[in-house]
Each structure stands twice: as C-alpha cells, then as structure tokens.
C-alpha cells in the first residue's frame, strides 16, 4: 500500500462546512460525513490537527457592522468555534477516533487549554486534536489560527477544506464564467492579486513560515484522503515558489 505524502496535517474546516445547505447551524449528518473523512486519514497513521471556524453560527465582523463592539463580537465568534469543535469531537468519538479539544480561551469544564507541547504529544499518540476558540484574540480569523498552529506544531501542510468551491479561481466561478482554476500558486500571488483564499494575515504567516496550503472541496467523499495521498486535486499554494 502506498504511504501518505504528509505525516502531520492541519485541517481547516470552515463553520459553513458543518452547516450543510442551510449555511447556518450545525448539521449532524454533515459533520458525520466530515468525521468519516477525518477517520480515513487518521487510520492511515497521519497525525491530524483540526482548526474549526464558526461562521455558521456567528461572525464578529457582522456583529460589529450591526453596531456591536468589535472585540465583543469577535469573542462571540470564538465561542461559536467551540460549539462546532465539540460537535466534531462527538462525531469522531462516536466513530471510534480518540480526540482532544484544546481551546485558546480557558473553559476547563469542556476542553483542555491550548498547550503546544501537549498538543504535539496527543498527535504523536495518534489522537486527533481539535483547536477551538481561534487564536484567542479578537481581530483574527480561524484561517490565521490554522496558519499559526501549523507553524507551532510543525505541520507539513494546511488542508483547507471548502464546501462551496473546489480550488482557487481567478474570479468567483459562480459569478464569472471566464474564471479559471489554478493548480498552483504562491502566497505572494494570493496577496498581490487579492485572491479569496484566506485573509492577508493568514496568507502572510504561511508565506513567511513557508507552510504550503491545499484548497480543495470536501463535498466529494474521500477527498481528504486523496489530498493526503498526494493526488493533485484542488489548488496548492506554496510557501515559496518552486519548493
Ligand atoms: N475569531 C476571532 N479570533 C480568532 C478566530 C476567530 O475573533 O482568532 C472570531 C471572528 O469574529 C470570526 C469568528 O470568530 O468571525 C468565526 O471564525 P471565522 O470567521 O474564521 O470562521 P469560518 O469563516 O472559518 O467559519
């Protein structure tokens, strides 16, 4: 049997990827299908850390546009990621996969605090680690969290699983039929051309720390495994060109 291309990965799941067609809330059957895909790669021996977003429940920016204090609205967004993380943990554990949730904001009754060395130890023991509550700081995103945690745990790659697109395009493929899909890009291209891959803080962090990112669709069962095995689906964004 061929071996996985990556040994340790950070899987970034947006909140929307857990919501299904409704686009909001938590959809247990959808989470179950995501959990099955995570299980597939965990069983290959790949060390999996997951960063979960919260946009299916709350986004700080929207709260602030409606007049709320931005930092308060962002803390609410971070709490939303905790709900999603617990839902994913539940589904993975029901599937027989051992997990730990670590939060960047202390809430000892429901999750461990984020401790880098402990997270690495869990990964070495083949537990799936779910990073909740973003970076713990307002004005950041869970994409930035994925970049930060990937650098900290020395992940080989960030797998950015999308529920609405299968890679990075030159324009929004739903609005512009001339949009073309890229197979490969650099973070400099992403930043320079303002491509909607991740926010610029997250992109800069990946670029500066040379962390590759693969953007792909999670809607097709088995795609996480395909990416981990090295199949070229989606778009790869490289830390440095020609690495
Ligand atoms: N958030 C934050 N700091 C972080 C991560 C997240 O303040 O380090 C807040 C922010 O308000 C954001 C919300 O949590 O809108 C949900 O995260 P995000 O929008 O990244 O979720 P996704 O789009 O991936 O579902």
From TrEMBL:
Keywords: Allosteric enzyme, ATP-binding, Cytoplasm, Kinase, Nucleotide-binding, Pyrimidine biosynthesis, Transferase. Pathway: Pyrimidine metabolism; CTP biosynthesis via de novo pathway; UDP from UMP (UMPK route): step 1/1. It catalyses: UMP + ATP = UDP + ADP. Its EC number is 2.7.4.22. GO terms for biological process: 'de novo' CTP biosynthetic process; UDP biosynthetic process. SUPFAM superfamilies: Carbamate kinase-like (SSF53633). It is an enzyme of class 2 (transferase). It is found in: Cytoplasm. ATP binds at residues 12-15, 55, 59, 163, 169, 172. The keyword Ribosomal protein does not apply. InterPro entries: AceGlu_kinase-like_sf, Asp/Glu/Uridylate_kinase, Uridylate_kinase, Uridylate_kinase_bac. GO terms for molecular function: ATP binding; UMP kinase activity. Pfam families: AA_kinase. The keyword Transferase applies. Transmembrane segments: none annotated. CDD domains: AAK_UMPK-PyrH-Ec (cd04254). One of its GO terms (cellular component) is cytoplasm. Residues 7-217 form the Aspartate/glutamate/uridylate kinase domain. Catalyzes the reversible phosphorylation of UMP to UDP. Homohexamer. This is Uridylate kinase. It comes from Heyndrickxia ginsengihumi. The lineage of its organism: Bacteria, Bacillati, Bacillota, Bacilli, Bacillales.
């Amino acid at each position: 049997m061929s071996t996985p291309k990556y040994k340790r990965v950070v899987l970034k799941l947006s909140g929307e990827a857990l919501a299904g067609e409704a686009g909001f809330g938590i959809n247990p059957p959808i989470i179950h299908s995501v959990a099955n895909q995570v299980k597939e790669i965990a069983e290959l021996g790949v060390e999996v850390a997951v960063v979960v977003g919260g946009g299916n429940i709350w986004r700080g920016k929207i709260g602030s546009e409606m007049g709320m204090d931005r930092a308060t609205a962002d803390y609410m967004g971070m709490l939303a990621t905790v709900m999603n993380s617990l839902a994913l943990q539940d589904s993975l554990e029901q599937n027989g996969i051992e997990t730990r949730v670590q939060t960047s904001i202390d809430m000892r009754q429901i999750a461990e605090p984020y401790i880098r060395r402990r997270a690495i130890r869990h990964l070495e023991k083949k537990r799936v680690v779910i990073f909740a509550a973003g970076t713990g700081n307002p004005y950041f995103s869970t994409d930035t969290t994925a970049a930060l945690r990937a650098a900290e745990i020395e992940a080989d790659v960030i797998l950015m699983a999308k529920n609405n697109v299968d890679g990075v395009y030159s324009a929004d493929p739903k609005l512009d039929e001339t949009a073309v899909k890229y197979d490969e890009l650099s973070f400099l291209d992403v930043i320079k051309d303002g491509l909607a891959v991740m926010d610029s803080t997250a992109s800069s962090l990946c670029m500066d720390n040379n962390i590759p990112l693969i953007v792909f669709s999670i809607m097709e069962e088995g795609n996480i495994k395909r990416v981990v095995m090295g199949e070229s689906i989606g778009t790869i964004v490289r830390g440095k060109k020609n690495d």
